[in-house]
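Need a sequence for this fold. Nothing fancy.
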């Protein structure tokens, strides 16, 4: 009867409204988004804001869910020199999903605020912000809303606790096999030089900073009762943690979540002083990623009911934004040789702080420091080391560093008299992991010399020449003045 076409029309209009939502993806509902909905929102935001976003996946979870990351920045397809990379990772424990939702609201806030809000515009113009709403999407799907404590969904689909799964500075490789989610994050950190990071958790209200673990030779009761295990960058970490807690609505008050648990002064704590753990992500970021990461515990209840999400967003919003800006404090610059060619993998350390960072393939380095006077130490294989004093005030000081080839190994191409005389030009320097060079013969075409390599040796040559490494020729004109032979002539097979 007349009923049928009407129903049909109704269905069509429902279908259309599902496909073409009337509203922008910026309107994030205060509910928990399961994986398909979260993915849809990320895709839609990426479509709506191609000039501010790039959506990428760093790998897949055990059950095959993408580990999504949204890059938010002006000109996401360009990488201007020295524009720092920062990241937020949430929901590493599947049953601690408040951060996961806050990340979606953060995306919306940043995209909507660009061009309207001065601070957000400045942030996106000067920072590459990588946001991972869920590092453990499988664990999330296994958890239940309203569960304030407990461990259901904490681990990944192999029940591995991802925040115990990283190589540990004090304890070595993890006891449990490195999980796909952990591996993906490790690769991500290796491929991108992140400078600052925050890792969102739940179950407490505190900003906690490295180290989480303690030296292996610590007295037994250190582990039991909690004793600080500080990094040489303790001043920086304290400041970062306080930036979060003091910009949070109430974290800085240090109120405890449970009767009997100790208060956190200022809402911050050294990780090990709270309790020590092995294989955590923040220690890994600091030691192996040269990235200052802190752990943000943002809800007493691990998986609070969704009606509380507006309150959590309200409490954390300012802290989340202010923390990102902290990357613009310290010293950064480029490491180059005397011809302005970038030097990759130079070590840049601050004297007295043993954990250095390494320059990118474009020679960039970044270092967050509090205002003060520091000595920078830069070194790279084949170059003379350099020490420089820098005065850090509020904000960033740019300090480019020029390294000169080790006096004994550098020869100006053609113009160097030693070279023209046909003397034994190349100097030999030991190279670790160079076992496969054993027995190779290296011959300069002009002038002539021959030198048989000993095990673990490599030859340092001037740039821009043809060299014969019998029987092949190598046209050696890359940006570094090192020739590394990657094959084995006489020793192999
Ligand atoms: C608390 O914060 C204040 C202000 O930054 C600082 O002076 C004080 O040392 C902090 N106390 C602790 C225990 O972190
Ligand atoms: C970087 O330098 C360190 C120490 O000098 C070395 O162990 C490492 O293999 C180098 N990495 C690359 C990618 O060259
Ligand atoms: C440092 O190097 C960058 C990139 O090469 C350059 O743009 C900048 O002007 C240099 N800064 C200083 C202070 O030399
Ligand atoms: Zn957690």
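Here you go.
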């Amino acid at each position: 009867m007349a009923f049928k076409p009407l129903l049909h029309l109704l269905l069509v209009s429902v279908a259309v409204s599902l496909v073409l939502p009337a509203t922008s993806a910026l309107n994030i509902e205060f509910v928990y988004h399961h994986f398909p909905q979260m993915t849809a929102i990320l895709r839609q935001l990426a479509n709506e804001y191609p000039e501010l976003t790039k959506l990428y996946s760093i790998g897949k979870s055990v059950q095959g869910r993408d580990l999504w990351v949204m890059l938010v920045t002006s000109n996401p397809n360009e990488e201007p020199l020295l524009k720092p990379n920062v990241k937020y990772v949430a929901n590493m424990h599947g049953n601690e999903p408040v951060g996961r939702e806050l990340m979606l609201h953060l995306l919306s806030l940043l995209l909507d605020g660009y061009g309207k809000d001065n601070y957000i515009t400045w942030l996106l113009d000067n920072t590459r912000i990588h946001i991972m709403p869920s590092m453990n999407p499988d664990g999330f799907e296994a958890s239940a809303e309203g569960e304030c404590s407990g461990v259901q969904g904490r681990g990944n689909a192999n029940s591995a606790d991802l925040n115990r799964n990283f190589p540990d500075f004090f304890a070595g490789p993890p006891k449990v096999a490195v999980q796909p989610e952990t591996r993906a994050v490790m690769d991500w950190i290796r491929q991108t030089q992140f400078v600052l990071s925050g890792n969102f958790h739940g179950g407490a209200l505190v900003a906690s900073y490295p180290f989480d673990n303690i030296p292996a030779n610590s007295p037994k009761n250190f582990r039991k009762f909690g004793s600080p295990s500080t990094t040489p960058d303790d001043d920086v970490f304290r400041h970062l943690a306080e930036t979060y807690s003091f910009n949070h609505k109430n974290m800085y008050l240090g109120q405890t979540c449970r009767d009997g648990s100790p208060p956190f002064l200022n809402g911050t704590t050294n990780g090990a002083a709270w309790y020590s753990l092995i294989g955590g992500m923040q220690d890994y970021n600091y030691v192996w990623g040269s990235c200052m990461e802190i752990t943000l515990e943002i809800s007493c209840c691990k998986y609070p009911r969704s009606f509380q999400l507006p309150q959590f967003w309200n409490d954390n919003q300012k802290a989340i934004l202010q923390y990102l800006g902290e990357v613009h404090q310290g010293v950064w610059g480029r490491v180059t040789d005397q011809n302005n060619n970038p030097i990759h993998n130079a070590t840049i350390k601050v004297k007295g702080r043993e954990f250095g960072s390494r320059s990118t393939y474009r020679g960039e380095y970044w270092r967050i420091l509090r205002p003060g006077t520091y000595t920078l130490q830069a070194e790279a294989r084949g170059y003379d080391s350099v020490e420089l004093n820098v005065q850090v005030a509020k904000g960033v000081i740019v300090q480019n560093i020029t390294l000169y080839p080790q006096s004994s190994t550098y020869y100006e191409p053609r113009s160097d008299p030693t070279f023209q005389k046909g003397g034994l030009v190349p100097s030999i320097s030991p190279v670790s992991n160079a076992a496969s060079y054993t027995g190779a013969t290296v011959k300069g075409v002009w002038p002539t010399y021959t030198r048989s390599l000993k095990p673990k040796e490599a030859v340092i040559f001037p740039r821009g020449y043809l060299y014969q490494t019998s029987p092949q020729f190598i046209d050696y004109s890359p940006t570094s003045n090192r020739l590394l032979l990657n094959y084995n002539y006489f020793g192999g097979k």
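For context: The CA atoms of residues 460 and 482 lie 5 Å apart.
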